[in-house]
């Protein structure tokens, strides 16, 4: 009995430089999870209004640590 080997290519989370507005973090998250970019940006703005310090720090850390695609 022969078994076929399948290779799974995993997507990496990276900033999207083509559709970026500030640094490309929201566009990269939207591309990774296959969500609409506008929806991710609206959620980020809502989170920034609701939790400004935590969201601001998380965005800056993500902008610094995420690689550019």
From TrEMBL:
Residues 11-68 form the Phage shock protein PspC N-terminal domain. The chain crosses the membrane at residues 42-66. InterPro entries: Phageshock_PspC_N. Keywords: Membrane, Transmembrane, Transmembrane helix. Pfam families: PspC. This is PspC domain-containing protein.
